């Protein structure tokens, strides 16, 4: 009896597996109006600079600007302290918490460096043009201070349990921030954040990953003419991926997660090395590419929506990539071994720098320098009103110009990045689920089944719809989270003053190497 993929490869689904195609159509048909409805509410616009600007985007921009002013540009003045803390100079192995500063940063970066940097950037330079890169970089720099604030709060208000484990992040500092307004407001804000985080985890941390993994797998197996381009193949692919994810989050095959956690840093290194090869391979084109990025940031084509339109695209994609202000990273950072909450704020600042300023910029430069026909055709199509293409394919075609076999390597990297992110976000999303529905074996099992179903849906639905819905949920998360950050800013400033004063008066000293937290 032929397997499902064998039938698909033989191009027989129209006769034998037509129900798969119909199922895909039903899923797309059901998801599109939901995405459109949610997006119309979350991204309500006002006319600015000749384009319709979503007010919610400026919510994140404003936070980054205000926090940067409030802390006197700590992104620049605190970099040396960040480096010292990552090296463990001020944290002992005996300090409360579970992991070192370096381990917390590595875990957080592994959750953000991935498809947002590959597919998200590919979509950004198509929708907003090369100039979107400039605004992504600026958003990354501003996001460094946002991470500083939210991760300091995540540690300050964390709960260290008797067994040494830690619970932290917005679920512990939101109740403190909103307690002054009464129990109803406090519970409402925590509930809103939990719902939004769950949906963003299910869509952005789940469906987006599955969607672009499928897109790149299709790209390297012959595109629309290959066996993964046939009707129903996306559904079969999604089911297989969901089974693999389920094997890990249901607790059966822990070795998969362990192997992936070792391979992902390696694939990240290979990806950055490939970017470097492409960029240096056209060394003479670098000044022109940088010039294009800067000039089109301030004088973009009309099709890109003018300066405001390009700025919006850049900030949206940066936010999706580094998640500054969303409230997800503090959940990981709160597990750090330290007695000084602001110390992890310093460390967390490095996350948007690595994720957005370095990795996203390298991806964008690779695409702009390669200047492929696919990229130019996609820009023209989007300007004419067509949906954005799969961002991962835009990036893949850029690599293919210089490294013909690299799309296959990229397909493996994308799969590993996606799998790692899926597992990480299953943890984040479970925290939101248990906040809403309580902790029990039955409740957690229901969540895991639902999470795996979203993997299947993500493999099937249209890329533009996934991106739109994920963006909407990301910004909803940022509303209660950043409100709490504003309310608790004086607490962060006091933590910063105490830490600096401790270093000046000698109560906080450099820890001997043999006593430092290193794991």
UniProtKB/TrEMBL annotation:
Its main location: membrane. Keywords: Cell membrane, Membrane, Symport, Transmembrane, Transmembrane helix, Transport. Pfam families: Na_Ala_symp. It comes from the Bacteria. It is found in: Cell membrane. It is a multi-pass membrane protein. The chain crosses the membrane at residues 56-79, 190-208, 228-251, 263-283, 289-313, 346-370, 406-425, 445-463, 469-489. Belongs to the alanine or glycine:cation symporter (AGCS) (TC 2.A.25) family. This is Alanine/glycine:cation symporter family protein. It comes from Nocardioides nanhaiensis. The lineage of its organism: Bacteria, Bacillati, Actinomycetota, Actinomycetes, Propionibacteriales.
């Amino acid at each position: 009896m032929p397997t499902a993929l064998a039938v698909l490869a033989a191009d027989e689904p129209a006769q034998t597996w037509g129900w798969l195609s119909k199922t895909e159509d039903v899923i797309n048909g059901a998801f599109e109006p939901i995405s459109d409805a949610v997006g119309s509410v979350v991204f309500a616009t006002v006319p600015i600079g000749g384009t319709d600007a979503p007010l919610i985007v400026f919510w994140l921009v404003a936070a980054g600007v205000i926090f940067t002013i409030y802390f006197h540009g700590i992104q620049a003045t605190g970099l040396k302290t960040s480096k010292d803390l990552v090296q463990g100079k001020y944290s002992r192995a005996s300090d409360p918490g579970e992991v070192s500063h370096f381990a917390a940063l590595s875990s957080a970066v592994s959750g953000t460096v991935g498809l947002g940097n590959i597919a998200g950037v590919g979509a950004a330079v198509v929708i907003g043009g090369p100039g979107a890169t400039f605004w992504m970089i600026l958003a990354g720099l501003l996001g460094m201070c946002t991470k500083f604030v939210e991760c300091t709060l995540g540690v300050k208000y964390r709960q260290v349990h008797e067994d040494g484990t830690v619970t932290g992040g917005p679920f512990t500092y939101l109740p403190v921030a909103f307690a002054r307004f009464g129990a109803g407001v406090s519970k409402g804000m925590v509930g809103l954040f939990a719902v939004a985080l769950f949906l963003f985890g299910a869509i952005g941390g789940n469906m987006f990953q599955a969607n672009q993994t499928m897109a790149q797998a299709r790209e390297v197996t012959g595109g629309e003419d290959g066996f993964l381009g046939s009707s129903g193949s996306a559904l079969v692919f999604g089911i297989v991926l969901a089974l693999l994810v389920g094997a890990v989050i249901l607790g059966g095959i822990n070795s998969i997660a362990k192997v992936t956690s070792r391979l992902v840093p390696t694939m990240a290194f290979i990806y950055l090395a490939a970017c470097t090869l492409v960029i240096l391979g056209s060394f003479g084109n670098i000044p022109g590419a940088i010039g294009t990025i800067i000039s089109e940031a301030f004088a973009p084509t009309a099709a890109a929506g003018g300066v405001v339109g390009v700025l919006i695209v850049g900030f949206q994609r940066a936010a999706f990539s580094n998640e500054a202000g969303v409230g997800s990273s503090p959940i990981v950072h709160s597990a750090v071994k330290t007695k000084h909450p602001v110390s992890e704020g310093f460390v967390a600042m490095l996350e948007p720098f690595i994720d957005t300023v370095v990795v996203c910029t390298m991806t964008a430069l690779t695409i702009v320098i390669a200047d492929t026909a696919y990229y130019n055709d996609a820009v023209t199509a989007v300007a004419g009103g067509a949906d954005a293409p799969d961002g991962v394919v835009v990036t893949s075609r850029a690599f293919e110009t210089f490294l013909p076999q690299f799309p296959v390597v990229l397909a493996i990297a994308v799969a590993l990045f996606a799998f790692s992110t899926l597992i990480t976000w299953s943890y984040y999303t479970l925290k939101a689920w248990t906040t809403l529905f309580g902790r029990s074996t039955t409740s957690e099992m229901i969540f895991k089944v639902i999470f795996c179903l979203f993997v299947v849906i993500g493999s099937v639905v249209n890329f533009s719809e996934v991106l739109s819905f994920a963006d909407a949920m990301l910004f909803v998360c940022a509303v209660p989270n950043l409100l709490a950050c504003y309310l608790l800013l004086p607490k962060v400033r006091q933590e910063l003053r105490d830490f600096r004063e401790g270093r000046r008066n000698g109560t906080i000293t450099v820890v001997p190497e043999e006593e430092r937290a290193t794991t």
